Amino acid sequence: MSIVAPRGQAFWLYVDDVLQNRNPVHSICIENLRTNRYNVRVELDNELHNTVGQIIDLDESNAFTILQNKRCWGIVDYHVQIRPELTIDLVTNQHHWGYNNQSPAPYMQPGQHMQMGMNPQDYEHVCQLIANEKFDNSRMSIAEQVITSNPMTANQILGICKLFTYEDNKLEFAKFAYTRCVDQNNYYLLNEAFTFDSSKQELREYIKL
After folding, report:
1. How far apart are CA 18 and CA 88, in angstroms?
2. DSSP readout, 76-111?
3. Left (φ > 0), alpha (ψ -120 to 50) or beta: where does 17 sit?
4. Which residues pair with 108 in a beta bridge?
5. Parallel, antiparallel or unpaired: strands 2-4 and 63-69
6. Continuous segment of H or E residues that includes residue 162
7. How far apart are CA 21 and CA 102, in angstroms?
8. Is the pTM above the cut of 0.85?
9. Diameter over CA atoms, the chain
């Protein structure tokens, strides 16, 4: 079963009321399902924490997208191939995560199925593409496009920030990338990207560290 969110959205997925991903993702594939019918619920990683749940019958479809219609959210069939950000076996016991409640955890921790940052070879290729651009606006366009669909570590985000010429653009990307960072507890590393204390303070206030 694969589920993808609209561009710019991330979510936590519950299957039969058991949390599947410790950190919010933009797309996910659940493998080793034992039946064809599940109670699926997603909670969006936004200010309102919009939640939608429904019964899904995998006999009819196994790919879905989260869809917004005005102020309402739903889960509908998706007829485009999904390349999931995270692929895991079905989690059937909440103690898999090492805690006794089902609230999403704010940071990703190392685990057997967790994807920790972008593949190093792909990351180096992306950095070269960004560095080859002459202007910051072109660099920003590539960087935002890449991190929207590829989780990164704080250190990887720092490396991309350093490719921008102007401090304002470094700060803009650092803010944009925060929700895509797989180890947000290390986001203090981004201070190294900035020359001015005011930029460091603005980022701290933005992420409320």
Report:
1. 13
2. EE--S----SEEEEPP--GGGGTSSS-PPPSS----
3. left
4. none
5. parallel
6. none
7. 11
8. no
9. 57
